[in-house]
Amino acid sequence: MTVSTDITEGIPYDISTVAVDNSFTLTDASYDIVIDNIPFIANITNQNPYRRETAPYKKDQFDSSPEPGEQSLTGWWLRSQTSWHNGAGITFYEPGTDYQFVNHRFAESSGIDVSVIGEATLLPEVFHAYHGNTGINAAVGANGTDQCLVTGDGLGYLKRVTLNGDEHVTAVDFVETATAYPSGHNGTNHPFLSVTTDGSNYYAACNRAIHTGAISVLDEDITPLIFSTDVDRTDIFIKYSKGYILFGLGNVVYTLDVPTIASLVASHSSGTADVLGANFLTHLNKSWVWTDATASPRATFISGTGGRTSEIWKVLFDDTTNANDMPGATMSLSLPDGETVNAIHYYLGYLSIGTSHGVRICPIDGNGDPILGPLLVETAHAVNGFTDRGTFLFAATTMHPAGETHHEHAGAIRIDLSKQFDDGTFAWANDIEYRSSVNIDSEEDFVESASEATEVYNLNDRLVLVVQEGEYGKLQVEHTTRRRDTGYIQTGKIRYGTIEPKFFRFINVDCSTGSGDTITIATIDQNGAEANLQIISDGLSNQDIYISNLATKQQHISLKFTFNNSTTDTELPVLKAYQLKSVPAIRRQRLYQFPLSCYDVEMDRNNSVFGFEGRAIETINRLEAMEETGRFVKVTDHRTGESFRGIIEEVRFTNESSPDKNNSGFGGLLLVTVRKM
What we know:
With about 675 residues, the protein is mainly beta. About 5% of the residues lie in helices and about 45% in strands.
């Protein structure tokens, strides 16, 4: 275990003590030193000299960890970082004070892959795979294939998109089934809103009916179940779970098995709700809307919201009837007031909840109920969907980088479910993003347009973002080889565990860059002002760089590393470690040691005798009382003309006289050490 790396020691006195002015004035004796109201004659010898020195302002650092660390070093105040795999979200980078929660973590990033221990580099780029003229209402893909079902383009069609490698955007960059199917109810008047699949068949709901058919032969599409003939419904979702199709319609969730859907073609076209079957769950709130569903080994969880209230309901699987027990469903989790749920996803023993405020990861208790987890990632925009890959969970949302007001864009957050901390949170970081530029005034005037990720899928081990950009819908797919052109990672605020000011002097960066690639170092001062410091290119790694853009002392700073990839994607800029060197900028304190004569009766340099019996012990008692209380005293040195306020650090008395018949003999050398404040 490593002991705290806080640097400075506190003053071991009550600094709120009120100082008392020295009211002593010289009379007929020539005194040298006056401490508070007590005058003294200096008694300076070679053995007991008058001394003044700088008071210690750093404590010895002790390192009890099994491996050497920065606490073992002397001289510079150091702060290093050698990995970033524990994710984003910290404010201060102080690994010695709370090791688990800050070690190998950082404040924020964009476009940077931190999943590999010991390095940070650029994430994969995304490429355009599909374009919907009026947006994409829903999409679904199954891992292990290159096919994705897309709904809601300009004609309200359901289409099957097959990826064609990593080709960029052209008219032939994807292979699209020639036959596309509208909902069957006057085409564009009834676009599809939700789609799901059981791996072989698709189930797509428009605002009037549920469609189904084989994924491999879309031209066999049928319209088996019309649930409304006169009202367009938008409060719907459809989801495959545990062998059944769950269909949410307003405040009711129906359970439909595949054979039932296939048989309901002509006999149930009246549009009445009861044709959806008897196995359903009805929420008592008439304005309730069910939003999503996900299956766990023991149950199916269904989310919904009504006004400012959101809940998660648990539906058990009935082994007797081999069906979901919808009427026996129970409410197992309620979200805080005002936080609405958009998506849920069960994976690796956790229920993930995407809300209007961010992401919550909820463990499952012994009864199979989720326990409300903390808000792991607080987002400026809603989290709309989840997918998984390996030990990672990905959440679709809209990125809002700090300091950027117009760069809101679609992206995914990566959460590592294998790295959980004691407070119930997990390692996370921003992952793939979609950014595009639009012309606003002229051919040379471009800005990034706003976009939103409405869903995210794992398609054959590649992430697929469903993006809404203005009036258009797009599929943006993770590239297998191409990496981002640029990205950045920003550290937490570095303050060495103390608010005392420092001079940040040097930084040493261990990195590798391809020919033409660079990593730009910037500093962010205590007021949030960012300034570029140095551009590191090939061959400039592992060198002390003087921090010339921070001339004034700072309480803390952050470091920002911007990666620029201008060469092939086989040689990327990689950040491996950095070390920051600083010195304290606190005002130094002085220690004064005064050798003083302390007898009952004394003689000054002019041979004038003064004093009284008992004076020595009275003087010592008064000084010791000042030392014990730690109050401020005023010290005047008439030899040098100096006067200052301070605290008595030490009182040491040596009895140097012998008693006789006329005198007790109590007296001698008094060493008083005062800290000038």
